[in-house]
Design a protein that fits this description.
This protein is about 75% helix and about 5% strand. It is mostly helical. The chain folds into two domains: about 1-45; about 45-88, no CATH class. The termini are far apart.
């Protein structure tokens, strides 16, 4: 295909087709993940908590510890924890 306005049509088509294939794969993976969560729910697990565990496991240790410390501090400030030092 010839260049139009300085853009190679074949190259654009190739890029767009690759993106489309990856989007299809992404959707298939999302469907697979939904099935695993449905299986977990059928086995009595709380999927909301499982999603939270997966999110936490993605974090690096320092980031996770900082968020936990801030959460404890905020809960203490709201009177929902008695002592931020003993809550950890």
């Amino acid at each position: 295909m010839a260049q139009t306005g300085g853009i190679a049509g074949d190259q654009i088509r190739s890029i767009v087709e690759r993106i489309e294939r990856l989007e299809e794969e992404k959707q298939a993976l999302a469907d697979d993940i939904k099935e695993v969560y449905a299986e977990a729910k059928a086995n009595g697990f709380d999927t909301k908590i499982l999603r939270q565990v997966v999110r936490i496991r993605k974090q690096d240790t320092a980031e996770r510890q900082e968020q936990e410390a801030l959460l404890d501090l905020y809960l203490h400030a709201l009177g929902m924890r008695s002592d931020p030092a003993t809550a950890a």
